[in-house]
Amino acid sequence: MAEAANAKPLRLAIAGLGTVGRGVIRLIETNHDLLAARAGRPLEIVAVAARDRSRERGIDLSSYDWVDDLDAIASRDDVDVVVELVGGSEGTALSLAQATLENGKALVTANKAMIAHHGIALATAAEARGAALKFEAAVAGGIPVVKGLREGTSANALERIYGILNGTCNYILSAMESSGAGFDETLKEAQRLGYAEADPGFDIEGTDAAHKLAILAAIGFGARLDFDSVRVSGITRIQAADIAQADVLGFVIRLIAMADVEPGADGKPHLLQRVRPCLVSKDHPLAPVDGPTNAVVAEGNFSGRLLFQGAGAGEGPTASAVVADLIDIARDEVGAPFSIPVAQLAAMPPAEPGDRMESTYLRFTVADRPGVLAEITAAMRDAGVSIESLIQTARAEEGGEVLVAMVTHEGPEQSVARALELLEGSDSLTAPPLVLPILRA
Residue 397: its pLDDT value, please? Predict the structure, then answer.
């Protein structure tokens, strides 16, 4: 312990003093001696920066040098590592990240949007200068899933990566289960409790989970980041009736981010990345994951199924992930940001999912008149979709429509898509159908 305390410190500058930035400072101050022992040298904060110097943050910053110009941090001679906690994929965060790496300094960030959009360019700059680029906190908060995939599963060819990557959505869906309330009401309660932002669009539309999935797919499959190819559907159309019917069938509804690789017609690997709400079998390891918790499943060809689960956000868990990266840097554990050098990452074309086999839950909102059910089942028949069960006919939550729900036998995705094409323009349907794939254990 004394030897570590006397070693040359790792000098840090922290840009961004919101929830996570404050948490990082508290953690380093509280666990200073423990961190020094584990890192082999002390972690020393020398400078901090944020947009508003006058804001009260509930921590004493007087012992740290305040920097008004965030970009100036990157060129300071007394800084070894910049911790970027500003947020946003562009602007100040990106320019600070670029300047940090161009100056040969290590960069630690919790910024999943920036990594998803600019990770390849940043990793290229880091590798060119031998600088560390670490982003454990960018995916799943305090869960060490980036390290787990980059190091723990490195001996495996991963077959699939999937999980619950957004705590806001998971809180809303599991709260709807327990309360029976509708989506809008539950969202307002999530906002009141601080689980959802005032503008929750990135979360409830699936974009946040898509950022994280693109990062995990790059690490797990050795693929070049391709956020633009992630197929994304959010949870805004989930009704209390869907939650209730899923329960009767032995399922829960969760927003699932999933990626896998398959050979394409050209013989090359193709990458499929999707974020969408799914019916998850109650005996699946993801089903009990409720509230703002995150969980990731990785399936390796030798390791089998691995489950990473824990707090997906919050001051303490996210700060813990940031500081874990700092400990690696203090130990001179750099490594390739995406597990292999950028030049070796494969440019995998997006996979087409049409031939994939799955069972599907379909919910139609229809006019309350004779013949509607026959029209729907005829479209299913003509598209080659086999109906396992017609589950429910119930009054919709709003208006005079009726909800009709069914589950299909396993079949090609394109068959369900074809059936819905046949129903397009029908005046029997008063809203677009809801299509939820079924994920079984």
Answer: 59
Predicted TM-score of the model (pTM):
0.92
Cβ neighbors of 143 (< 8 A, separation 6 or more) are 294, 295, 296, 308, 309, 310, 311, 312, 317, 321
Per the listing, tokens 């009726």 go with 402
Residues 6+ apart with CB under 8 A from 383: 415, 416, 418, 419, 421, 422
As a whole number of Å, the end-to-end CA separation of the chain is: 47
Give the residue carrying structure tokens 């130990």.
Answer: 331
How distant is the alpha carbon of residue 93 from its chain centre? 19
Catalytic (active site) residue 105: no
Q: Give the CA radius of gyration of the chain.
A: 24
Among candidate residues 188, 212, 268, 282, the one labeled active-site is 212
Give the CA dihedral 359, 306, 133, 344, nearest 10 degrees.
Answer: -70
* Cβ-based neighbour number of residue 199 at 10 Å: 8
Please tell me the distance from the alpha carbon of residue 236 to that of residue 281, in angstroms, as a whole number: 21
- pLDDT lower than 50: segments of the chain: none
Please report the pLDDT score of residue 334 as a whole number.
86
Q: What is the reported pLDDT for 39?
A: 95
Do the strands 43-49 and 65-66 form a parallel or antiparallel pair, or are they unpaired? parallel
Residue 306 in tokens: 């691995």
Task: Provide the sign of the torsion angle of the four alpha carbons 241, 243, 247, 253, taken in this order.
Answer: positive
Answer yes or no: are the C-beta atoms of 168 and 292 closer than 8 Å.
Answer: yes
Structure confidence at residue 122 (pLDDT): 97
Apex CA 273: angle with CA 220 and CA 139, to 5°?
55
Tell me the one-letter amino acid at 44. Answer: E
> 404 is written with which tokens?
């009709």
At 83 the pLDDT is: 97
CB contact at 8 A, 148 and 306: yes
The two tokens of residue 292 are 């703002």
String of DSSP letters for 313-356: SSHHHHHHHHHHHHHHHHTT----TTSS-GGGSB-PPBPP-TT-
Strand partners, 281: 251
CA distance 180 to 63: 51
Contacts (Cβ under 8 Å, ≥6 apart) of 92:
70, 71, 86
Residue 254's Cβ-side half-sphere holds a number of Cα atoms within 13 Å equal to: 32
Which residue is associated with the tokens 């949870």?
A: 235
Among 31, 64, 60, which residue's Cα sits nearest to residue 46?
Answer: 64
Burial of 68: CB neighbours in 10 Å, binned 0-12, 13-18, 19+: exposed
